[in-house]
Amino acid sequence: MRKIKYMFLLMTIIILIIPIICFNFKADSISKIDNRKLADIPQKQAFDDYLKSWDTYLNDRIGHRDTIITQYTKLNDIFFHELIHPSYQYGKDGHIFRKLNQPFHDYEYMDSFMQTVVKLNHYCEQRNIPFLFVLNPGKDTIYPQYLPNGYNYINYRLDYLYKLLKLYNIPYVDNVGYLNEIAKKEQIFNVKYDAGHWNDLGAYYGINHILEALSEQFTNLSVNTPDMFLIGTKHASALPVSNFEIDEIIPHYQLKDSVRMQFQSLNEEYKNIPLDDAHQTFSYNFNRLSNNKLRGMYFQGSYLNTRAEMLWPSVEECINIHAYENVIDFDYYINLFQPDFVVFETVEYTVIDSYYNKQRMTEKSYQPALDVAKAKRLENKEIQIVKQGGFSRISVKSEKKDYAYMKMGNQVYDLFWDSEENKYYVDVRNSMLAEDYEIWIMRK
After folding, report:
1. pLDDT tens digit string along 103-155?
2. DSSP single-letter state for residue 435
3. Is the pTM for the entire model greater than 0.70?
């Protein structure tokens, strides 16, 4: 009996020690099981917040965290029919939702977010680039009748965001109202699988609604039709970023090979473009058979990241960039790709500081478009060109930090300031490089 006690004690100690020994110290770690960046070592702050930050850091970085969560989730489901998971929870009638928190309405933050959207729209307007904002709904907005008992669903956040869009006269697509009507007849979010996103059927409807809005401005832009896809179903055996087992047949849309073969990927040529460490999704596809000569740019969240191919057939060139922190550097990508239109898509529940950093949004400013009447052309300014794949970095030495621009060929580029090397720079696609150029300076 004593040996059994010793063995039990030893096993308990081992179970407790292993997660500590295997503690995750790696910076910028991403958790696959709850699809987010894990907390880094806390910086100095108010004492209470500092303690909370350390508690979060230790919980996030404990060794074998994903395995522990997986096993704990399975046991709770077996014995108590409770879904204990960082990303999911049960609703009614077998529905699974993303983890629901008590409604929190940070109106000051939403004001800051929408001011950034205003700045992006204004930046595009000054350069005659049509801009479109898309706010997509979460499953809880489309199917509130299946939310867990006791969850009081009143979406003040969504109402306030739409109020701001109208107040600031931002061009937008109302996918919330549109998909609410579709959902009365069709299952556009799965019952269980991938509760944080629409399914392929919902994506087809939602993306076509965006394309239809764009086609009002670009009559030659193509809208998807069912015959472009192989439409069927597939079996889902586990929740995404989880080992939690399910058994569900879900819609499946895939471009036909005859359509897919039209596209040439240019991703490799642009692998060196700067992207936020936690949001690296990028694709650039050229449609060989398109003749509409349109170059579209989408800043998008996870709703479009996994279904970007539904956007490709509509234009000749389609650029898809992970939104969140990248969209704050909106002006960099506009200058690099010189798109014919820009779409900024996000989901209602991502309009929070952990996705769109309030401080960065507030501090970021965008320079106005070049007004030659107010600017001065710099004579005898030589540029340096360094190729980086499908694009090149152009830089010019200067002593002043005013608004700066480069005219090259038929294009005008904003020049960005590098304070470390005292120079202006911009990245330009190699296909747009020209021997004739002018540097202009405009006073702030």
Report:
1. 567 899 999 999 999 999 999 999 999 999 999 999 999 999 999 988 877 78
2. S
3. yes
- Residue 278 sits at φ, ψ, to 5 deg, of -90, -5
**Same domain, residue pair 224 and 147:** yes
Interhelix angle 330-337/107-126, nearest 10 degrees: 20
DSSP class per residue in 119-160: HHHHHHHHTT--EEEEEEPPHHHH-GGGSPTT-----HHHHH
Same domain, 298 and 409: no
* CA 367, chain centre distance (Å): 24
Give the model's pLDDT for residue 67. Answer: 61
Tell me which residue of 239, 237, 230, 228 sits closest to 197, measured CA to CA.
Answer: 239
Q: Where are the alpha helices (DSSP H) in 227-321?
A: 257-260, 302-305
The 10 Å CB-count burial string (b at 16+, else e) for 303-331 is bbbebbbbbbbbbbbbbbbbbbbbbbbbb
- Based on the fold, state whether residues 207 and 351 are members of the same structural domain: yes
| Sheet of 437-442, strand order | 375-378, 437-442, 403-408, 411-418, 423-429, 391-397, 384-387
**Structure confidence at residue 126 (pLDDT):** 97
Low-confidence ranges of the chain (pLDDT < 50): 80
